[in-house]
Amino acid sequence: MRHFLVMTLFAALTAFVFGGMSKETPREQVFYGLKVFAEFLAIGLVLGWILYFIP
Amino acid sequence: MVKVEKAIELKEPTPGMAWATGAAAWLVPGAGHLIIKRWVRAVLMGGSVWICFFIGLAMGGHMFDLSTGQGSGAILQVPPMIANLGSGVLYIVCWLLGIGFADDPVQAARATYEYGNTFLLIAGLLNYLTMLDAFDIAAGRKS
Fold this sequence. Notes:
The complex is a heterodimer of chains A (55) and B (143). With 55 residues, chain A is mostly helical.
């Protein structure tokens, strides 16, 4: 659980910066930040499960 | 006519204020956006860097300089050092005070040691992005 929380924190902090600098309007920035955040979590979980089955 | 205007635009020198803003943004995370009065960006982007850095330190992360602590060559220390150096004054103060640079086996044995390393590296890299954003806004290349 702690690993997931750390990953979530990392994704959130990175998404703030990516969202802030990548788009023009605040609305686009929020959506892009949320997208980056979700992608970080999803990719982390997928990779975690893949590596779980690799000895 | 349009081509001539574009050529003139391209040849316009970057204002000195933009370089000063970029330098301030590197030195103190968030300061670049504060100078150009982008308060929300300063809090969100600069704040992310500060939080990332202090969480990294709290997790027992290790920062890199040119010393060859664990038998590795100095050249291998350069890429992570460049990433760490992005944190600006945070890195410099820690380096001067010797915080986060020691090769301590007890610290390295902590479960969060690698997480800490990653957070410290990412703090520096995020600040490079923040610095470029502040520079672009100050130079008028971005709204």
